[in-house]
Design a protein that fits this description.
- The protein has 338 residues and is an alpha+beta fold.
- 25% of the residues lie in helices and 30% in strands.
- It folds into 2 domains: 4-129, 3-Layer(aba) Sandwich (Thermophilic metalloprotease-like), CATH 3.40.1830.10; 137-336, no CATH class.
- The protein has 8 helices and 20 strands.
- It is globular.
């Protein structure tokens, strides 16, 4: 049984992390109207946001997901009708692979109201007390915005790793976004700490070797997954773990666009750990990830799939080519070169 002092410290740390994410990431102002959507397993986390919102003078409401209705296939009518009443919305609930279509529609509706959306499917207490939400946001924001400046006007990425990744991804000038500061009508994850872009859906080619985490509740891979990509689509997958290939293929068989590239993301948060939970892992420094499937909420994104499946790889080297064909190495063996 946890000691009373430990519980009090944990609660205080959670509230501090919640308050800082409201202040820095969601740029809250007095009298903002905040909605916290949560489920049974995230009740304590929602409570930390509730108390922090009150301390900051924000107007707070909550919505609890009904467990008996899960897995949710759509946004409940009573929730959808209230979304337009808020300018900050925080999603704190467990992540279920079979609820991906629900989460995509929910965030589309939330951002469509003009709200600033902090999206935390799979958020845990440990992320708030010891991990990526307990971070120096000022330093994180400075690093992210400096990197964003470097990534402006990129034509393509050439990405390699010692494990065998050798991949060209084209952006054709599509811009990167970051979740370290969420603006009106946009969504970012809580915890924050990455930059991402929507690659051109038809041009990526090469080999991706996934040696980290895969979303959809698959988690950390024991044996690498080798993915061959042509013209932006997965053409084959191989692994020493046959069950892993089957599980990934099942998730990516939801529709015809699920195997088309949707995102390139790069982790920047120095306090994010590799835990097997993609919500945290994709923020970890010295990692990057590709996602296949939906990217309609990203600048230029054209993939309408009902799936968005992240796949993380470690310690990449990245050379970028700009639209003027000048080149620059921005990461070597996972270390940023700013």
């Amino acid at each position: 049984m946890a000691e009373k002092g430990d519980i009090m410290t944990e609660t205080a740390n959670m509230r501090e992390s919640a308050k800082n994410s409201l202040k820095y990431v969601l740029a809250s102002e007095t009298e903002d109207k905040v909605l916290v959507i949560y489920d049974r397993e995230c009740e304590d986390i929602a409570g930390a946001f509730n108390e922090s919102a009150k301390e900051l003078g924000l107007n707070l409401s909550t919505y609890k997901i009904v467990e008996e209705q899960r897995p949710l296939k759509d946004v409940p009518d009573e929730l959808e009708k209230t979304l337009s009443d808020y300018n900050i919305i925080i999603n704190t609930f467990t992540s279920r692979a079979n609820e991906t279509p629900f989460r995509i529609k929910l965030t589309d509706l939330e951002t469509g109201t003009g709200a600033r959306v902090g999206h935390g499917p799979g958020i845990t207490k440990e992320m708030m007390t010891e991990g990526p939400m307990n971070v120096d946001y000022d330093e994180l924001q400075k690093g992210a915005f400096s990197f964003m400046d470097i990534l402006h006007g990129v034509e393509k990425f050439h990405i390699t790793t010692e494990k065998g990744t050798d991949l060209e991804i084209y952006l054709d000038g599509r811009e990167f976004e970051t979740d370290v500061l969420i603006e009106k009508g946009n969504m970012g994850n809580l915890p924050a700490g990455e930059v991402w872009a929507a690659p051109v859906e038809t041009k990526a080619s090469g080999v991706l070797v996934v040696d980290g985490t895969i979303g959809g509740n698959i988690g950390h891979v024991e044996k690498e997954l080798k993915i061959e990509i042509e013209n932006g689509r997965i053409v084959s997958m191989h692994s020493g773990d046959a069950d892993l290939v089957i599980a990934v293929d099942e998730l990516l068989s939801i529709d015809k666009d699920a195997k088309t590239i949707g995102e390139l993301g790069i982790g920047l948060n120095p306090k994010a750990r590799l835990t097997g939970n993609m919500l945290e892992d994709e923020k970890a420094a010295r990692t990057a990830h590709l996602a296949f499937g939906n990217n309609l909420d990203m600048p230029g994104g054209k993939n309408p799939s009902d799936m968005h499946l992240d796949m993380l790889f470690k310690r990449p080297t990245m050379e970028i080519t700009y639209l003027d064909w000048s080149k620059r190495v921005v990461m070597r063996d996972g270390e940023l070169i700013l």
